[in-house]
């Protein structure tokens, strides 16, 4: 079946949908704004899970109005880009962060762009943006990370050739999962759950349908869910992770569909949700209803299997040396779900760090919940480099 661009009726004025072929072996669907004038400085925006290029629908016009050529791809495995036909038994290597960085490099080259003024990424897309700045600072000249702090790439063990073997001091994923399962009530980490065979089917075939599942999921992680009052965790113990909401540290006996269904907003709250009205949620629901979630979930499997860490070890100890900043919702637990990552990003991982900005009135979906404030912060960051 030949895939068509998104219908213009669902897009803001000045934003268009199209495909770019032969991108690192993939066909990439992009939304773009500011394309009418050749030679504009380019910014590339990467979305997270379970989102799409459409998540940037209100930011793209603001960047174009300020004189930029703004490009947001559906990341590999999502939406209308290649890779959404993934199955659980497929090779997960194409969904690694570094391969998504390769996708980005190929994409901008195909677009005739040799220098990108900023790689901007939200959630899982923040890791892609950080990877762009880490590995190809000659192309991606600055980075904005959103909602998922980049704690850096650990140094390799040094001068250990004659040392005795020392057991690792940080808990392994399997060890942490076992500790969570022993809690009362028993819990599990959402990343581990997303790496299981049943996760895709649980969400794709949620009892109320994909639209209802996404409504509950987006609500649960937004500032509209008033219980989102995040604070730093005191280390990486299971008892600390148990303080996270159920969408991060889940009940052991529940899938994500059941977890978020318990927090479905009322009909009145849905009607009042200006940042995600039903007609816009329908765009996400139609895409995920068609593709399922496995293409996005493959990225979680890269992380939980250790494949991603092994691949990034090529850049062990390397810092991000281009200008960098972090933007997130003040009501986003994602700021703290990896203890110490925010501080490591600020103090060590980035050598030209320009600040942390917590946006009030936003949970995890900061660029959707508060697009005007996010756009202003991005533009302030870009002007600061001029």
- What is the CATH H-level superfamily of the largest domain? Alpha/Beta hydrolase fold, catalytic domain
Per CATH, the architecture of the largest domain is 3-Layer(aba) Sandwich
Spatial separation of the terminal alpha carbons: 45 Å
Question: Mean pLDDT score, rounded?
Answer: 96
How much strand? Answer: 5-15%
Q: Please state the overall shape, judged from the principal axes of the Cα atoms.
A: globular
Domain count: the total is 2
Walk me through the structure:
With 386 residues, this protein is α/β, with parallel strands linked by helices. It has two domains: 14-153 and 306-385, Rossmann fold; 173-295, no CATH class. Helices cover 35% and strands 15% of the residues. It is built from 16 helices and ten strands. It has helices at residues 60-65, 97-110, 124-135, 173-181, 190-194, 199-204, 210-220, 238-241, 256-261, 267-271, 278-291, 294-304, 307-312, 341-349, 366-369, 371-385, and strands at residues 15-23, 26-33, 42-46, 69-73, 116-122, 143-146, 187-189, 249-251, 324-329, 353-359. The strands form two sheets. It has an eight-stranded mixed β-sheet with strand order 1-2-4-3-5-6-9-10, sandwiched between helices. α2 (97-110) crosses α3 and α7 (210-220) packs across α11.
């Amino acid at each position: 079946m030949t895939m068509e661009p998104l219908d213009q009726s669902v897009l803001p004025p000045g934003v268009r949908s199209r495909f770019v072929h032969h991108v690192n072996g993939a066909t990439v669907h992009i939304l773009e704004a500011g394309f009418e004038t050749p030679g504009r400085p380019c910014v590339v925006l990467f979305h997270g899970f379970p989102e799409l290029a459409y998540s940037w629908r209100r930011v793209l016009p603001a960047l174009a109005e300020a004189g930029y050529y703004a490009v947001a791809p559906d990341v590999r495995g999502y939406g209308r880009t290649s890779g959404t036909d993934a199955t659980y038994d497929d090779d997960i290597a194409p969904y690694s962060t570094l391969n998504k960085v390769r996708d980005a490099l190929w994409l901008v080259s195909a677009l005739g762009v040799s220098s990108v003024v900023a790689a901007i990424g939200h959630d899982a897309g923040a890791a892609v943006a950080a990877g762009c700045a880490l590995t190809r600072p000659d192309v991606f000249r600055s980075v904005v990370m959103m909602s998922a702090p980049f704690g850096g790439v650990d140094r390799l063990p040094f001068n250990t050739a004659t040392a005795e073997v020392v057991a690792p001091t940080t808990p392994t994923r399997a060890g942490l999962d076992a500790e969570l399962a022993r809690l009362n009530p028993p819990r599990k980490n959402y990343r581990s759950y997303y790496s299981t065979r049943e996760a895709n089917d649980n969400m794709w075939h949620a009892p109320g349908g994909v639209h209802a599942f996404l409504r509950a999921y987006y609500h649960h992680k937004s500032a509209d869910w008033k219980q989102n009052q995040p604070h730093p965790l005191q280390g990486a113990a299971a008892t600390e992770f148990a303080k996270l909401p159920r969408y991060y540290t889940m009940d052991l006996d529940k899938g994500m569909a059941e977890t978020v269904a318990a927090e479905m907003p009322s009909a009145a709250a849905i009607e009042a949700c200006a940042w995600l009205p039903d007609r816009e949620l329908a765009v996400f629901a139609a895409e995920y209803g068609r593709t399922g979630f496995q293409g996005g979930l493959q990225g979680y499997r890269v992380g939980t299997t250790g494949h991603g860490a092994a691949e990034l070890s090529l850049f062990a100890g390397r810092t991000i040396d281009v200008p960098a900043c972090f933007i997130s919702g003040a009501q986003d637990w994602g700021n703290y779900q990896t203890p110490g990552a925010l501080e490591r990003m600020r103090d060590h991982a980035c050598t030209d760090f320009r600040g942390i900005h917590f946006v009030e009135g936003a949970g995890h979906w900061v660029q959707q919940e508060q697009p005007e404030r996010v756009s202003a912060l991005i533009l302030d960051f870009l002007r600061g480099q001029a």
